[in-house]
Amino acid sequence: MHPPSSSNTPRRSPDAAPTGTTLRGARRDAAILVTGAGGEMGHGLLEAFADQRRERAAAGETFPAVIAIDLRELPESHRGLCDEAFTGDVCDEKMLERLLASYEIGAIYHLAALLSTRSEFVPEIAHGVNVGGTLNLLRIAAEEAANNGRSVQFFFPSSIAAYGLPDLATKHAAGPVGEDRFLQPHTMYGCNKIAGENLGNYYGHHYRKLATDRMEHPVDFRSIRFPGIISADTVPSGGTSDYGPEMLHAAARGESYACFVRPDARIPFMTMPEAVAAIRGLMEAPRSGLSRVVYNVQSFAPSAEEFLLEVRRHFPTAETGFEPDLARQSIIDSWPASCDDAAARADWGWSPTYDLASAFDDYLVPRIRARYEA
Ligand code: AKB
Fold this sequence. Notes:
This protein is of the alpha/beta class.
């Protein structure tokens, strides 16, 4: 793990207009905190907040400051989208305390995590980051709620890794898996996601149960179990669902690619814009309409072979083969072939933008060609 450096790189975005006037030391800027902001999802979220800020400004309304934290210095493309960027570790309590001296946190989007494949090489470190970091931020959310007398929203990206189908026969027979089945993950990352979900539920509904001065519902915790996510702009690393984006980006670059899963491997996917839209959809939904803390979403669930056929429809000369890594394949075999997202559709209006073909036609291939052919 990188030594935590708490140097922050103040960057006020050009149209930054945090709510209210701020007398440093007297009051704190109202703020949204985004951890793991430098990743693919973080970039999409920062762009969404910048859009919301412009919409609010046009209506003469203010928007909270957006504060980003990442282990690495945020790319300039990201820094221009936030009010302040901290380079540090979500396990660094001193850095978080310093951040709280300046900002009143009204919402936390906690994206920082070690993904499934990487976590299997350092499981105890992964637990420290994925659960310890989440606990740190939940504690801060609860303390901010008590300080300000109102609950703090908390978005937690869970994953299909939270599921653990015991064997392929069960996976094939299970059909679309609902949120309450097969919750015995086979990876440390999956265990960490289940722990994060349960901690969030505790901070949302049971925190300090025996305290005489307890606050009801200090944290408005909401979570989505994301499938594999495919971005035209970034290639993820450290994940087990990476074979999809890796295959596509390699074909677009004219490079050969050895897919590490079998042709018949099947899990749900969605595009990055749909993942960011799902986060906004859930976080902007009235709390009263939510029947659950954790929701499934998905857009399409192709086999790796069906995914390759789609890649070759656009890149017919793609040199893609299959060289299954049995260990990583065993992780994919424990994840659902498809997830039941009926609750998200009913409670907060989730619906996919794309199916497999239109994701390629309308988003992935046009953006990816522009990226690699520029
Ligand atoms: C991973 O592969 O670890 C992630 C995920 C499915 O949560 N992309």
